[in-house]
Amino acid sequence: MPQKRNPFATMKTAVGARVVTGATASLLMSPPAAHERDHRQLEIERDTLPRVLVTLGGAQAKLLGLLGRLHVNEEALRKDAELEGPLLLTEHVLMQLAPAIGHEKAHDVLQEYVTQYQRTGVSLREYLESRPDTREAVAGIDLEAATDPRSYLGLARDAETFGNQIKRIYDVGVSGIHRLFAHLDEIQQASAVIVIAGMEGALVSVLGGLVSVPVIAVPTSIGYGSNFQGLTALLGMLNSCSSGVSVVNIDNGFGAAYNASMINQIKESSL
């Protein structure tokens, strides 16, 4: 794809990751039992470990070189997001519509809207207001806020305003818990952790058992099924058996940020 400007190093790094994954699987297939080792296992290690280490070293060198030249064009990203219009955030709109017309119906409506938008460029508000089954539901939804990508940045800026250093970590829910473990080291270095979760709110209990710092839980109203606009997550968090967990009200990111800021400032003043 000549129109792409992605450096060749990205492909080489991705290939290296796949090679290491496959080679590591070979090592784990026949682990030693009761401190007994045979010649076959030793041969696998002699053959595989050098390849793993060399490949990792090469991939690391290419990645570090790439990151040193990386440039994020914020203006181009903003324009790309605007070109896609509301299509990027239809899931958020779906969660707003679901309580009124049902999750399945909301999904079908927005799927049909995507097709219409690609054909005619019709606005989301105009489309929903033109349908008898969504006209009343859309009256109570702030579509401009629901389809603004900036609304997904959360309230971390509030905590930064208070003089705190913030680390944002996204998409580490319990449905893919390996993604959480990949960030566990840096999470454990924090003075306080704010956990924002919907659905059943299980992430709070999991993380509360993995860190030794205060965990502030924020139930979010975004969810579907029996989420009840965040009530399910709120009750689940309040019933967490993990110690060190406190819970703020539904969608109260500001309150969580303020509490985390006070915790951080108390820690810094005691040093």
Can you offer a commentary on this structure?
The protein has 271 residues and is mainly alpha-helical. The protein folds into 3 domains: 8-68; 77-150; 154-269, Rossmann fold (3-Layer(aba) Sandwich). Helices cover 57% and strands 5% of the residues. It has 14 helices and 3 strands. It has helices at 8-29, 39-68, 74-84, 90-101, 103-120, 124-130, 135-138, 143-146, 156-161, 177-181, 184-187, 202-208, 231-238, 253-269, and strands at 193-197, 215-219, 245-247. Strands 1-2-3 form a 3-stranded parallel beta sheet, sandwiched between helices. Strand 2, helix 13 (231-238) and strand 3 form a beta-alpha-beta unit. Helix 1 packs antiparallel against helix 2 (39-68) and helix 4 crosses helix 5. The model has no long low-confidence stretch (mean pLDDT 81).
Mind sketching the topology for me?
Blueprint: H1 8-29, H2 39-68, H3 74-84, H4 90-101, H5 103-120, H6 124-130, H7 135-138, H8 143-146, H9 156-161, H10 177-181, H11 184-187, E1 193-197, H12 202-208, E2 215-219, H13 231-238, E3 245-247, H14 253-269
Parallel strand pairs: 1-2, 2-3
Helix pairs in contact: 1-2, 4-5
